[in-house]
Write a structure and sequence with these properties.
Layout lengths: L1 H24 L3 E8 L3 E8 L9 E6 L3 E7 L5 E5 L6 E6 L5 E6 L16 E2 L1
Antiparallel strand pairs: 1-2, 2-5, 3-4, 3-6, 6-7, 7-8
Length: 124
Amino acid sequence: MRILIMARWFMLSVLFIVGPVSAARAHRLDAQAFLLPGNKLQIESWFSDGTVPRGAKVQVYRGEHELLKEGTLNDDGLVVFVLEKAEPLRILVLAGEGHLKELNVSAADWGKETAGKTCAARQS
C-alpha cells in the first residue's frame, strides 16, 4: 500500500514538472515575411499548434531602433504594410506572454527574383 501511494506521488510530481514544458512547446510562435510588388510587406504569423495569434503586435524597424510601421495581425494572422522604399528591415511579432518572433529582411531580398515570395526566413 505504501509503495502504491509513493508511486502516485511520483507520477504527480513528474506531471507537475513535465506538464509546463510540453505546454510551452505547443505554443512556439512562428512567422514569415512576404515581399509583394509596390514595396508591400506582408507578415504572417501562427503558433506551432496551428492557432493564430489574433491581435498580436507587429513592428517594422529600420536598423535596430527606428520604428517605421506598427500594426496588429488580423483574424487570419496577417498584416500588410506599404513602405516608402525597399530597404533592410527588422520585424518583430509580439504575441504576449513572452511570445516573440524576429525576422530580418536584407536589401538583397527586395530584388526582382524574390518579389512576391517568402523572404529567406532569416530569423533571430
